[in-house]
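User: Please predict the structure of the protein below. I'd like the answer in structure-token form so I can feed it into my own downstream comparison script.

Assistant: Understood. Taking the following sequence of 991 residues as input:
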Amino acid sequence: MTTASDPAYPAHWEADVVLRDGGTARIRPITTEDAERLVSFYELVSDESKYYRFFAPYPRLSAKDVHRFTHHDYVDRVGLAATVGGEFIATVRYDRINAQGRPASAPADEAEVAFLVQDAHQGRGVASTLLEHIAAVARERGIRRFAAEVLPANNKMIKVFTDAGYQQKRSFEDGSVHLTLDLEPTAESLAVQRAREYRAEARSVRRLLTPGSVAVIGTGRAPGGVGRAVLRNVLDAGFTGRTYAVNNALGPGPHEIEGVPAYASVGAIGEPVDLAILAVPAERVPEAVADCGEHGVQGLVVLSAEYAESGESGRERQRALVRQARSYGMRLIGPNAFGIINTAPGVRLNASLAPEAPPAGRIGLFTQSGAIGIALLSGLYRRGAGLSTFISSGNRADLSGNDFLQYWHEDPDTDVVLLYLESIGNPRKFTRLARRTAAAKPVVVVKGARHSGTTPPGHAVPVTRVPDATVSALLRQAGVILVGTVTELVDAGLLLAGQPLPAGPRVAILGNSESLGLLTYDACLTEGLRPLRPLDLTTGATPADFRAALAAALADDACDAVVVTAIPWVGESGALESGDGQVLADALREAAATAPAKPVAVVHVEIGGLAEALAAAARTVRPATPAAPNPARPTSPDPAPPTPSNPAPPAFEERGSGGRAPGTPTGGQPKGDALPTREATRPPTGGQPNSENTDPTPPREAARIPAYPAAERAVRALAEAVRYARWRRDAAEPGRAGEYDDIDEPGAAALIDRILGPAPDARGTTLSAEDAGELLGRYGIAVRPTLPAPDPDRAVEAARRLGFPVALKPTAPHLRHRPDLGGVRLDLADERQLARAYAELTAALGKPEELGPVVQAMVPRGVDTVVRASIDSAVGAVLSFGLAGAASELLGDTAHRLIPATDRDARELLRSIRTAPLLFGWRGSAPVDTAALEELLLRVSRLVDDHPEVVAVGLEPVIVAQHGLSVLGATVRLAPAPPRTDLGPRRLPSY
């Protein structure tokens, strides 16, 4: 029989999973070495659970039982266990049976399945997760159905089966419920699986961001050091839970560090610890993790470095860290992390290296870089923005942007999500999660390391062959607002967090500078907006003039958004007067508060205090519930509020901002946190478009008008909001997939099976022109025939068969699709012209056997295009479109959409390339048949979606005429269907 070290052991069945409550467990096959674990596990199961499993009192397992439950062939008899800390918490097994219910072997395709879950772990979703994994194992072994006998009183187990989403039958026989489950995944089972994944992963994040107690491990007794700094930051932020310091050099007896209890280990604390911050050298981390895991810590933030970023030995140390943490049911942020911040009044946690926590706000921020995290925190603070939560994940060996997306989707305190990413470990999943979150609130992403061609140090992620431009296009399809710099990330975040979404692209421009208004007008045109004629208020305009003009613009039905431009005015003495920024801010805020909800942005030049006043004028703070005093630390009667003082990097500097963060008196609270003289109602923001806030308690931020030092930055942020709002409107009405009566799906499947054969080459095979044409024809895609022309006579014969006029072209790889080299001769009207062209072609480019000339009938003239589809294991199936020719290739002017594509996707593909005007009648030319082109795209999408063995399709060129189109060349590549990681059971990534 098999042990974990035997070659027959199915190691690929091992998986780390997140359970319903956010904790983790490891699922693995049961081996012959597990006898003692099985007996210990069984002793902890209640008599009632044993009765439900065996239908009779069964106090203990016999030696025969233990042997049977630990010896498997992993084909007809399989057992899986869920473990925490190396010990069993649940088991599941199946035994293959025949039609009479007796033990059998293949080809029998039914198996009996049974579960047993330790009582202390019931209700955590263990059985549901085990069912997903044992079903995947069964499908791999040729089993198509599960049969289960359940006592009627065992409602929990009946619910596990009935809620799984599989097609099932249910009957009552001999005093028990008989269930039969069809194991083929269904849309319902996938939806159930993903819903469980969303909830579980969101809860695993919530456990870390909302702890009731925190221990900082590695806190030095003397001032200085990372651990001591983090402890100080936790205390200064006013954490509402219990705080402990841990230093293994401490002896027995009571100790204090920074006024909080200090202990030599987590175990010595004697109280539950929810979150541990590890600030110890890498070689001491395993000991600290074991201490945490053995004493019930729920999550870790590992600040320690010297992991994957330091080389291969560090990479293996990182893998071991993740395995160890997950084995105890813990999730971790890091290693090499900067830390986490949660500004919620009931938490107030700053477990990071940032010396001051940012003010509370509506933005969730995730970064994979500590340096960028510092810059973003400082930049957002200087611009008056607050955060709900902040995470800097470092090497993100476990928790990643995917997990935090799921948390922020459900977090009522977050309206806008900002992410700085240097790598995406699972683009397919990230795209799916981003689409789900973007449907509820904006997701803004800036991606670093786009052009380096390498994975950033410390990021152990799968390699994808898909270019970054393609991944970016797919993210935009999912509703992600993709920006190019961290400055643009802040610019967009400020607008989306404080302003409602625009209803359209029409922009009113008003201000006291004609020149600045014209710059804004030009910027709007550049970004694809529709600016109205700028309104020049002249340099003599007063704040009252601004208020009246803004109110009128917002009330105008022809306007969807307003950009206000303001410069200092010239006084009677000729000197520049910056004016009172607070007065102008009040005027603009009053106009916005009384007008219809439309976004407003301000472009200002050297008006002192305006940006700060705009950020502060409408910020309100919910009446804070007095926090319970920290029982593990003495409280002061009037703690001083935090005052961020990180200097902003040059990318965030704005003229006139001064040496410290705007509005921050030395040692005091930033101006932006002061209550205004009149309360404002927070307008619907990017997270809640056009919704009315019925909460009688004023929100923390309201009607904050973002200010920008340059017109281009304000307009770019506004344009991103316009595009996102349009995506939201379109996403509310999803398109339809192509449905065509002439598609022969069974015929295509049979042809694919015949070509691949019983033992297909894993590397794949490229189809001949005949086979490619036949396969495409099954999906209504006609490829114009080409006939070989190895000599002039055969060329003439081919032309006679096809009918004049014809084209003569080479098929040699170095000349294929290269009309610029003079190898393609068109409109050959008769045999004489064909013979002359043949002679000229061979004389100029080489012998016929080198060129591989072919003859093809001429088609109506039109626009040359290219349609492609390909499959990447990380991204999935991608449909691509562009115009043919060197110019498009040189500019990378290709659009991409995920398969299956809808009719809306097809329309957007045609219109999203820069050369799209050529399809719609550019410079007086006739528009081409875009409807036929959209249909072709949908047919290709259906082919690839229906048959995962079709791993690549290339149609080039596709000539689109005024009426109809012609596919002149086609290549198709087949390979064994690649695994679909998104269809398998839930599992945490293991890099």
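That's the full token string. The two ends are 30 Å apart (CA to CA).
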